[in-house]
Sequence to fold (853 residues):
Amino acid sequence: MKRLKKGILFFLTFFFLLGLCSAAASRITAGCRGCVRGRSRVFAGISAEKKDSLDVIFLGDSESYTSFSPMDLWAQHGIASYNCGQSSQRIQETYYMLKTALQTQSPKLVILETNLMFRDPGLAENVLLTVGEPLRFYFPALRYHNIWKSVFDGPKTDADSFKGFPVHSDIEPYTGAKKYMQPTDSVKKMPAHTYLYMDMIRKLCAKNNASLLLVSTTSPVNYSYPKHNALEAYARRYNIPYFDLNLDDRAGIDWEKDTMDKGDHLNLSGARKVTAVLGSYLMENYSLPDHRGEKKYSDWNTLLEQYQTAADRTENG
Amino acid sequence: MTTFQLILYILIFLPLCLLFYRLTPQKHRWKALLGFSIIFYLMLCRELSLILYLAGAVLITHYIGIWLAWLQSEEQREIRESADSAGKSREKEIRSRYRTRARGVLAFGVLLLLSILAGLKYYNFLIRTLSEILNGAGLSSSLSEIRILLPLGISFYTLQAIGYMADVYWGRIKAEPSLAKTALFLMFFPQIIEGPICRHSDTAEMLYAGKTPERTDFTAGYIRIFWGLFKKLVIADRLALLVSQVFDDYRDYSGVVVAVSAVAYTIQLYMEFSGFIDIVIGSGRLFGIRLPENFRQPFCSQSAAEFWRRWHITLGVWFKSYIFYPVSVSGTVKRWNQYGRKHAGKYLTRLVTSALALFPVWLCNGLWHGDRWSYIFYGMYYFTLIILGTAIEPVRDRVLSACHISADSIWLRSFRILKTWLIIFTGELFFRADGLKAGIHMFRSIFRDFDIGNLWDGTLLNLGMSPADFAAVIAGCIIVAAVGHIREHSGSISTRIAGSSLPLRWGVCYALLFALLLFAAYGDGYQAIDLIYAGF
Fold:
């Protein structure tokens, strides 16, 4: 019994110390976003946004952050949004990304790019993510454990990211079939853990009075009709709106110019087209406030100027 | 085993095994260990059928042991019976007859195990070599390589199995009557991947006893595991970035960069291998099982021979016990000794005797590491250096004595250590290089465009490691060197800490845990690195 008590005390002390480290790590990252590198930067980025300043949160993998530009939504409709997409984001990360965002934000709409719903990293990694993500959420020292490196390596500038959207100028044409969405009745299966975490995401959105919207971005490499069927069935079952940009020609994607890696991801030009269509869809279906002109959002206009400069530089070669 | 699997092993598998082990009655605990070992092996096997090789090795080892024990008991029975009737001359004849039979049985078992190992490990090497010879002679070869998956730990458990059979043959141990216990001895889960290569007398008794570990075992075990993880995750996995960049594209580099990469690989290999062995020994300790040490501050060595007494100790001990000694007392070497003393003088006789006994040791050492000429070169490299060391020993002693230099002077010791470092770094350069040709190319390229200024002009920062990574590696190496210094002079640190006051024990555990959580090379920018020696 004495040994058990000692064991419990050991772990309690450990978690107390980890909590102290986490508080310190959160403080450092809030003051120095450039100190965080790699995928964790998105967590630091969304945490550093002004409290209750965002109406739309994007979640998803690289398909999300290469397709939806918050600065274009701002310029066209005054929608304040942030793209929380991460490369190869797993759905466990998606859930805790949303929880992180909801710590400081009260979005009206959460847009989930659906590509990650089909990702299955295997049992072992799923177990590790299922255990590891809550630990990283409650103890941010684990997520930001590399911040000490900036003492030696120097902080990394945040200039390449505009509310989570990086400007990609590369062009590598897609040369496959233009009509890649061939109607069929077959349905692509989603892994079991997707259903579990989607339930959690839906409940979290409902609890925070945020609407959930599923969006599939334009990508001939990642999307097909069987995937569309699976997503449509899922959306219908849970009464969630679903918008598949692969079946909407309004964006007018030119596969010669609008993709950076042969149809896998869109580049800036493609993203701006897709964002314009999504913006119209949001204006038609949701009542999102236009914050342009509000004093609280004056820094958005400054960022928009920087974004326009970066975009002009990219578009003019 | 990847870093990912290693973490799962430490966080999930090991605690579950410990819990189950403690709940199992003492007399059945060895069965629990066997069960964990089978589950562990099956989980790590890339193909389930590969466990059949291990099962085959267990069967061969066990029944050869039983056969040898039966021959020994038959020999004793016949001697007892003959003692009543025919006397001593008959006893000699019986002993000789049974010795021949037992030797045959042992040879059969050893050949069987070695042919499985050789078939799996060297078949493609043989085909490649034959094809090269035939191509060189202008002949075409229809032989082609085949895809062979190596069973996990085959190089380690095969040596352990051969050692067991030889020990039964020599009467050092009794044959294990239980097949399941033989299986546990060969496949105890912490050591199956990278050793240490244990002798039956080292571990069997502890494995089968199932004693409840003491509190100090538990604390010392976990401290050792965290220490091993520190060496691997903080130092080795960082250095892997630089090492793989230079060795994978070796034609792009020369001079200081290649020299630094050889040093970096040596440190990486040491930190990773010894770190994993720390995890293995710590895991064993949690169950109250003391596995033999595999490293003893190898970078304090003053010669190549001493280095191999401190590096991968259990492999060296195995070669010494089962190759060096048998060859040393073999008929050929005995005959040479007799002939040499009469005709060649004491010095040359001793030198040739050493060479005769050491040559197969180092050839096997090279071959054991894998099917590459560079590994054979690696073995022959150390063979040559050790024989050279023996050859110049009398001259060196005479020079030192003439110059009135004490062999124990700090300057001479430091010089010897530095010289040994050079030998080690050069050896590891060939060991890591992608083949012998690549090794030669890299070695020669060190002397091309050699500019010492590359050490501080930023060149090294373009090799995958950032300044922070270098800082972590340097700090980590200083800590490991300091701990090594204490171990060298005062023995095991983990045991001493485990027996100390609670604040010190917990303080060390927390320091190691937080060093791992905050400074380990995981997450963004790092990749999980497979264990190097698990590939052998």
About this structure: Chain A has one domain: 33-315. Chain A touches chain B through 25 residues (CB under 8 Å). The two ends of chain A are 71 Å apart (CA to CA). Residues 33-315 of chain A form a domain with the Rossmann fold fold (CATH 3.40.50.1110).
